[in-house]
Design brief:
Number of strands of chain B: 2
Largest sheet of chain A: 4 strands, mixed
Distance between the termini of chain A: 24 Å
Number of domains of chain B: 1
Structural class of chain A: alpha+beta
CATH topology of chain B: Formate dehydrogenase/DMSO reductase fold
Radius of gyration of chain A: 19 Å
Helix content of chain B: over 70%
Helix content of chain A: 10-25%
Number of domains of chain A: 1
CATH topology of chain A: Alpha-Beta Plaits
Strand content of chain A: 5-15%
Largest sheet of chain B: 2 strands, antiparallel
Structural class of chain B: mainly alpha
Radius of gyration of chain B: 22 Å
Strand content of chain B: under 5%
Strand order of the largest sheet of chain A: 8-1-10-9
Number of strands of chain A: 10
Strand order of the largest sheet of chain B: 1-2
Number of helices of chain B: 16
Shape of chain B: globular
CATH class of chain A: Alpha Beta
Largest interface: A-B, 58 and 49 residues
CATH class of chain B: Mainly Alpha
Number of helices of chain A: 7
Oligomer: heterodimer
CATH architecture of chain A: 2-Layer Sandwich
Shape of chain A: globular
CATH superfamily of chain B: Formate dehydrogenase/DMSO reductase domain
C-alpha cells in the first residue's frame, strides 16, 4: 500500500477495446484461459461460479426488430486507479491481509494467491465482478496439466483470482530488456494474451501515459468511455463505440441526464490532472 | 433440596432426566451443524450456494446480526459499571453470557466462512491497517477475550468451584475490577461495531452500501454502533423473557427490565432519527450523484421498498415510541412487541447491508442477483443457536446467573 512517489518513469498500463470491432467470438477468453492456467468446469452453464479473467457480455438495446442491435463487451479486470488516481482501488483498500496490491510502477493491481485467505471482501467491493473465487480445487482434463504455463502459478481452492494484465509477460520483457541493458520496453514487447488473441484487433494494449503508444491516442477518442465511471473507480480499461446506446449502457444515468454531458463532467478532473 | 452439589443453593431446577432429554435434543441440532461445518472445511465453500456475485451471504449477515444483538453486553456493562445504574446488576450476568455466546459464534462463523481457514491468522500477521475488516478482526478478538474475562468470575461462583478458596477469592477480586474490563469492552465495542458498519459504508463501488464520510468513517460506522447499543439490550431482555417462559419463573425484577427498556427506547428513537436522516441524504444526494434513484435499489420482488418501510417505521419508530412511554414498558404485550420488533429491525438492517448490497445490479444489462442458502449454510447458521441454548442451559442450571431468582422464587 505504500506509495512510491517517484512517478517520473511510472507506467500506467491500460487497454482500449473497440466494441465496434468485437464480434463476440471469445478468442480473448480462450487465449486468457490458456495463458494464465485458468481452470474450467465440465459444465460451465452457471457463469456465476465460472473462473474467467475476461468475460464477454452480450448486451442489447432492447428494441424490437428491425431496430434491435446487440453489442459484445469483453470485460477483464479494470485495474482501477481508484478515487483520485492514488491507487486506492476498491479492492486493494479493503483486503485485510494485503493479498492484493496496487503497483505504482505499472498501475497493475496484483493478487497474491498464497497470501489470500478467501474472505472475499475484495469481491464484494468490486463493482465489475472481475474477481473470481476458486470454489473448487483446480482440475484439468488428463494430460492437460503437461501443457500448463510454467510462468503462471496455478491457484488453490479457497482463494480469489483475477486478471493480471498478463503480468508475467511484463516480467519476462523486463528481464530481456535488463539483459540487453535497456530501461524502456517497446510497445510490442509487452502485450496481453487477449490483445494478441483477438482476431479483429479490437483490443489494444499499452502504456496510457506514453504518447507514442496507440492506447494514449485511442483513449482520447470522442467515442471513448469507461465502465461505471461515475463511481470514481477510475478504470484503466477504455471502450470505444460509435453507438450512443452502448456508451450509455456503460454507466448509470438518471432519466433526464445526457450521457455525453455527464461523461465529460466526470472525465474533466482526471484529464486536468493528466496534463499537469 | 438440591440433587447435586453443583446446583446453586436456594433455587429449584428441573430433574436430571428432564435436563438430559432437553440437552440431547439441542445437542442433536448442534451435531447437525457440526457435521455441515466439517463438510465445508473438508470439501470447501462449493458446499454453499454462494457465487462470484454473492461473495458475502448468509454467514456474513449472521455474523453482523449476532454481533449487533450481542451489543447488549457492552452497553449494559457501560450502564452498570461506568454510569452506575445499580439496578442493572440484576441482568448484567445474563447480558455477559449472551454477549459471550454471540461473539464466540461470530468467530466460529468467520472461521467457517473463509476459503482458507488455516490461513485465518494472516489477518493479524499481514494486517492491512486501511481495511475495516482488519479492525473488526482485532477488536472482535480482543473483546471476546474481555467477555471471557467477564464470564470467568460467574463460572467460579458455581457452588462446587467456590468451595476452593483460591477460586473463590479469584472470583471475588475479578468482580472488584470488573469496571476496568467493562470500560475496555465499551472502547473495543465502539470500534468494532462501527467498523462492521464501515465494512459496507466504504464500498464506493457499491452505491447501495456507500455512504459519505466524517474524516475516514462513513456514516454507517456510527449508525452500526448506535443501533447495536440501542437494540442489543432488547435482545438481552428478549432472551431473558424466553428463559423465564421456559423455566416458568420470574428471574429478573420488573424494575431492571423497565430501566433497560427505557434507555433502549431512547437509544432506538435517536438512532432511527439519525438513520432516517442518513437515508434521506443517501437517497437525494449520494445515489443520484452516482446515477441512481432511490427506487432503482428497490425494483426486485424480494428487495422492494417495503423493506425500508419495515426497517425504519415498523421496526424502528414503533418500538422506540413504545419503549419511551411508561405505559408501553409496563404492558407486558407492548413491551414484548417492542423488543421483538427492535431485534427484527437491527437484524433486517444487517441483512440489507450485506445481501441487498450484493443483489443490486450495477449495469443496466444485468439482472438482480439471487441467492438461496444451501442446507450446509443453514445448518452452520443454526449451529450457534444450538450452542447458545446449551451454554444458557448449563449456565442457568449450575451458576447463580440471576441475583434476584431466590428472592422472586422462594422455595417453601
Amino acid at each position: 500500500m505504500k506509495e512510491n512517489n517517484n512517478h517520473s518513469n511510472a507506467k500506467r498500463y491500460g487497454m482500449v477495446i473497440d466494441l465496434d470491432k468485437c464480434t463476440g467470438c471469445g478468442s480473448c477468453m480462450v487465449a486468457c484461459y490458456s495463458e494464465n492456467n485458468v481452470p474450467f468446469k465440465t459444465d460451465e452453464t452457471n457463469k456465476l461460479d465460472s473462473l474467467n479473467w475476461i468475460r464477454v457480455y452480450k448486451i442489447s438495446n432492447n428494441k424490437p426488430y428491425p431496430h434491435s442491435e446487440v453489442c459484445y463487451l469483453p470485460m477483464p479486470c479494470m485495474q482501477c486507479d481508484g478515487i483520485g488516481k492514488h491507487g486506492h482501488s476498491p479492492c486493494v483498500s479493503v483486503c485485510p491481509a494485503v493479498a492484493t496490491d496496487y503497483d505504482y510502477s505499472t498501475g497493475i493491481v496484483s493478487q497474491i494467491y498464497t497470501r489470500c485467505f478467501g474472505c472475499r471482501y475484495c469481491m464484494a467491493a468490486c463493482p465489475y465482478h472481475a474477481r473470481k473465487f476458486n470454489w473448487w480445487d483446480p482440475v484439468w482434463p488428463a494430460d492437460m496439466e503437461k501443457y500448463l504455463s510454467p510462468n503462471v502459478s496455478a491457484r488453490m481452492r479457497g482463494v480469489v483470482e483475477k486478471c493480471s494484465f498478463c503480468f508475467h509477460r511484463y516480467q519476462l520483457a523486463r528481464d530481456k530488456a535488463y539483459l540487453e541493458k535497456r530501461q524502456e520496453l517497446a510497445e510490442d514487447e509487452y502485450q496481453t494474451a487477449c490483445a494478441q488473441g483477438c482476431p479483429t484487433g479490437a483490443i489494444t494494449f499499452g502504456d496510457l501515459n506514453n504518447k507514442s503508444h496507440a492506447v494514449y491516442k485511442l483513449k482520447k477518442s470522442p467515442t471513448a468511455f469507461r465502465l461505471l465511471e461515475r463511481l470514481e473507480t477510475n478504470p484503466k480499461v477504455y471502450y470505444l463505440s460509435s453507438k450512443s446506446w452502448v456508451r450509455r449502457a456503460g454507466d448509470n444515468y438518471l432519466a433526464h441526464e445526457e450521457t455525453e454531458k455527464i461523461n465529460n463532467k466526470v472525465k474533466e478532473p482526471y484529464e486536468a490532472k493528466e496534463h499537469l | 433440596m438440591n440433587e447435586t452439589p453443583l446446583i446453586p443453593a436456594g433455587v429449584k431446577r428441573c430433574s436430571k432426566w428432564q435436563f438430559s432429554l432437553w440437552m440431547a435434543a439441542v445437542t442433536a441440532v448442534l451435531l447437525w451443524g457440526v457435521y455441515a461445518m466439517f463438510l465445508i472445511w473438508y470439501k470447501g465453500l462449493n458446499q454453499t450456494n454462494m457465487n462470484d456475485a454473492y461473495g458475502f451471504a448468509l454467514w456474513i449477515w449472521a455474523d453482523l446480526a449476532v454481533i449487533a444483538l450481542g451489543g447488549g453486553a457492552f452497553f449494559s456493562g457501560f450502564l452498570t459499571y461506568i454510569i452506575g445504574k445499580d439496578e442493572l446488576k440484576n441482568i448484567i450476568n445474563f447480558a455477559v453470557i449472551i454477549g459471550f455466546i454471540c461473539y464466540s459464534s461470530a468467530l466460529l462463523i468467520l472461521a467457517i466462512d473463509i476459503g482458507q481457514p488455516l490461513r485465518g491468522w494472516f489477518i493479524f500477521w499481514h494486517a492491512n491497517v486501511h481495511s475495516m475488516l482488519t479492525e473488526v478482526a482485532f477488536c472482535l478478538s480482543c473483546y471476546f477475550a474481555v467477555l471471557t474475562i467477564e464470564f470467568i468470575p460467574l463460572i467460579l461462583e458455581n457452588p462446587k468451584l467456590a468451595k476452593k478458596p483460591f477460586l473463590h477469592h479469584l472470583s471475588h477480586n475479578m468482580h472488584g475490577i470488573m469496571a476496568v474490563f467493562a470500560a475496555t469492552g465499551v472502547f473495543l465495542s465502539f470500534f468494532h461495531q462501527g467498523s462492521l458498519g464501515g465494512v459496507a459504508g466504504v464500498l464506493y463501488g457499491r452505491p447501495f452500501a456507500f455512504r459519505e464520510h466524517i474524516f475516514i468513517w462513513p456514516f454507517t460506522f456510527f449508525l452500526f454502533t448506535w443501533s447495536a447499543a440501542a437494540c442489543g439490550p432488547c435482545f438481552t431482555i428478549l432472551v431473558t423473557k424466553i428463559t423465564e417462559k421456559i423455566t416458568g419463573k420470574k428471574l429478573v425484577g420488573d424494575a431492571a427490565v423497565r430501566l433497560l427498556a427505557k434507555i433502549s427506547g431512547w437509544m432506538i428513537i435517536t438512532y432511527i432519527i439519525a438513520k432516517t436522516a442518513d437515508t434521506i441524504y443517501w437517497a437525494y444526494v449520494t445515489a443520484p450523484g452516482l446515477g441512481f434513484t432511490l427506487m432503482d435499489f428497490y425494483t426486485s420482488s424480494t428487495y422492494n421498498i417495503g423493506l425500508l418501510f419495515a426497517e425504519i417505521i415498523v421496526c424502528g419508530f414503533v418500538p422506540g415510541l413504545i419503549l419511551i412511554t411508561k405505559r408501553g414498558r409496563e404492558s407486558s404485550f407492548l413491551l414484548m412487541t417492542a423488543i421483538i420488533l427492535a431485534v427484527i429491525g437491527v437484524s433486517l438492517n444487517r441483512w440489507v447491508m450485506v445481501l441487498q448490497v450484493m443483489a443490486v445490479p450495477l449495469f443496466s444489462f444485468n439482472e438482480w442477483y439471487t441467492y438461496m442458502p444451501s442446507w450446509q449454510e443453514v445448518a452452520t447458521t443454526v449451529l450457534p443457536v444450538a450452542y447458545g441454548l446449551i451454554v444458557i442451559s448449563l449456565a442457568y442450571r449450575y451458576l447463580p446467573v440471576f441475583p434476584q431468582e431466590r428472592e422472586l422464587n422462594p422455595i417453601d
